[in-house]
């Protein structure tokens, strides 16, 4: 059983996810957002096996280096955004200076690719390349739990007007990949409440 804790972090209320398996002392983090104090306090005493990034926009990566240095854990990111962590212009942190300063981090230790299987905290996570919001956006599926980043939201979809975004790719990612999953797959998005594939397939106004 996957235990999932959600932290809504930073000015954009980005969802960071802390995941644990049977061993309560081992965990992974998906998208440690900005102002990650609550998450840092929660992981005291935990072994963090990895940080998984759905994509490298600034509001999803703000806590990466602090956690990586504290916990000596590797970061995973799709190859198409390998230089976004190191480049404020690419990760968007220069676009909204009122939210925070430029973010320039160390590169990710590992690259993600379509169909890759990650074995972490006693569970298997499958990587799906789901571009559109950004070129290297990925979604992670573990059993019936899907972490969709900023691709699919409850009653919404990711914006495509940022650098590297492309509307046709976004809809292809959702309809061609995410909507191939069963109705009861639970979607944990990058912002907002969780939902299900079945609900979004029927009720999402952007997709019906």
UniProtKB/TrEMBL annotation:
Q: Which Gene3D superfamilies match?
A: Ribonuclease Z/Hydroxyacylglutathione hydrolase-like
Xref: InterPro entries: MBL_Glyoxalase_II (IPR051453), Metallo-B-lactamas (IPR001279), RibonucZ/Hydroxyglut_hydro (IPR036866)
Q: What is the lineage of its organism?
A: Bacteria, Bacillati, Bacillota, Bacilli, Bacillales
Q: What name appears for this protein in its UniProt entry? A: MBL fold metallo-hydrolase
Q: Which cofactor does it need?
A: Zn(2+)
What reaction(s) does this enzyme catalyze?
3',5'-cyclic CMP + H2O = CMP + H(+); 3',5'-cyclic UMP + H2O = UMP + H(+)
- GO molecular function list: hydrolase activity; metal ion binding
Which Pfam families has this protein been placed in?
Answer: Lactamase_B (PF00753)
Annotated Metallo-beta-lactamase domain residues: 13-191
**Keyword tags:** Hydrolase, Metal-binding, Zinc
Role according to the record: Counteracts the endogenous Pycsar antiviral defense system. Phosphodiesterase that enables metal-dependent hydrolysis of host cyclic nucleotide Pycsar defense signals such as cCMP and cUMP.
């Amino acid at each position: 059983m996957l235990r999932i804790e959600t932290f809504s972090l930073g000015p954009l209320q980005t969802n960071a996810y802390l995941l644990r398996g049977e061993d309560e002392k081992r965990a992974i983090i998906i998208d440690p957002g900005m102002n990650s104090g609550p998450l840092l306090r929660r992981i005291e005493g935990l072994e963090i096996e990895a940080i998984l990034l759905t994509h490298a926009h600034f509001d999803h990566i703000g806590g990466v280096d602090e956690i990586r240095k504290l916990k000596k854990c590797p970061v995973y990111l799709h190859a198409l955004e390998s230089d976004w962590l190191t480049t404020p212009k690419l990760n968007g942190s220069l676009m909204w200076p009122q939210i925070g300063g430029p973010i320039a981090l160390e590169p990710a230790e590992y690259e993600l690719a379509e169909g890759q299987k990650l074995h972490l905290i006693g569970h298997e996570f499958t990587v799906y390349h789901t571009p559109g919001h950004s070129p290297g956006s990925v979604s992670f599926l573990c059993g019936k739990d899907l972490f969709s980043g900023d691709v699919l939201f409850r009653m919404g979809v990711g914006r495509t007007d940022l650098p590297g975004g492309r509307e046709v790719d976004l809809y292809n990612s959702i309809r061609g990949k995410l909507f191939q999953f069963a109705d009861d797959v639970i979607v944990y998005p990058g912002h907002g409440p969780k939902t299900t594939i079945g609900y979004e397939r029927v009720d999402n106004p952007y997709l019906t």
